[in-house]
Amino acid sequence: MPTTVVAGSWGSRAGSLTMAEAISQFAIAGKTSPRSIIMRLLDHVLLATVVTLLASTYAAAQTKISAVTSHSSPNLGEELVRDRNGANNGRSLRVNANTAGATWLEKLGKHAKVFWWLETEKTDDYVLKALNLKELRGSDLTKNANYKYFLKFAKKAESYRLNKWVRKKFSTYQVWKELGLQKVRTVEQLNQIRNTKEFGIYKRFVNEFDDDVLRSVAGYNPPKVVVDRGAPKAEMTARVEIMAEAKRPMVYAKLALGLTVPGKPGVTLKGEALKNHDDYGYFELFLAEAAKVAKTTNKVA
Q1: Where are the alpha helices (DSSP H) in 120-146?
Q2: How confident is the model over 13-60, as pLDDT tens digits?
Q3: How many CB atoms neighbour CB 255 within 10 A?
Q4: Are both 132 and 189 inside the same structural domain?
Q5: Which residues share a beta bridge with 121?
Q6: Which tens digits make up the pLDDT trace of 109-125?
């Protein structure tokens, strides 16, 4: 059964608290990072704002439509809009005003729905069906007025998904499995999936995961650096390569790989103890990849 290595805390501060520090302390108690709390709050505030705007806009639209209708008395309206052929356009005027307001309101409503679908983690199939796009193909799909709402959903869905994984403290191997990559176990198999969408999402998560941990350290919020010992060579290799490409500090690479003193998860191994660790080979790989990145950077400069 896979074991995990969890890094400990990096200290705390005393005295009066700023808003950011208060959020940080609250996050510690709830085992959630300040960034995750703020992102979650912003999601809900945005959704509430859209819904409120939708309601107020609907009321305003109804008031405007009522005003147009009430001010168009039968006789006066007929005189104002009667054309040369004597045709009566009074009713047409009121209908057009009503339709324009309803169409604008409907568009606003769809934007609100997109945020709701994101918040409730709906699937692509669900959204396509809700927008009446499920059976459309080719130009019939892309030219449909609702297609832009699906594109908006699809573009933001990945960010919402990644944010959820970060909030829930998923390890990199957990996300690897979430993306259906559990059968990719060797380096040879890894090389075959490097250009896939799934690997691209995994890479983005690793970078967001590492950024979140480093921000947590800087913000005095105890981070959790989790290493799944049951992870295959393919995932560990990819993890290390991504860290090196992002120019992560050497000490962070040790922590992320669990190369720490037993009982002192915040203290990294050195000397023979480091070399004798089962995962030292991955740290050597990190150093080699980091050297390649540095060499490439120097050439460009």
Answers
A1: 124-130, 138-142
A2: 334 444 444 444 444 444 445 555 555 555 555 555 555 555 554 455
A3: 22
A4: no
A5: none
A6: 888 888 888 888 888 99
* 252 and 296 share one domain: yes
Amino acid at 214: L
Range of the domain at 47: 36-77+91-158
**Percent of the chain scoring above 90 in pLDDT:** 42
- CB-CB contact of 246 with 212 (8 Å): no
What would the two tokens of residue 159 be?
Answer: 């960010």
Taking the CA atoms of residue 291, residue 294, residue 300 and residue 301 in that order, the dihedral angle to the nearest 10 degrees is: -140
**Same domain, yes or no, for 115 and 186?**
no
Q: Are residues 121 and 241 in the same domain?
A: no
In this predicted model, what pLDDT tens digit does every residue of 122-157 receive, in sequence order? 889 999 999 999 999 999 999 999 999 999 999 889
Do 187 and 291 lie in a common domain?
Answer: yes
Name the least confident of 155-159, 262-266, 290-294. Answer: 262-266
DSSP string over 87-121: ---HHHHHHHHHHHHHHHHHHHHHHHHHHHHHHTT
Report if residue 55 sits inside a domain: yes
> How many independent structural domains does the chain possess?
2
Query: Considering the domain boundaries, does residue 183 fall inside one?
Result: yes
In a domain, 58, yes or no: yes
Q: Is residue 227 part of a domain?
A: yes
Q: What are the DSSP calls for 180-233, one per residue?
A: T-TT--SHHHHHHHTTSHHHHHHHHHHHHHHHHHHHHHHTT------EETT--H
**Which residue type occupies 258?**
G
Quote the tokens at residue 123.
């699937």
- Reference 4, options 205, 195, 169; nearest CA is 169
DSSP line for 247-271: T--HHHHHHHTT-EETTEEEEE--H
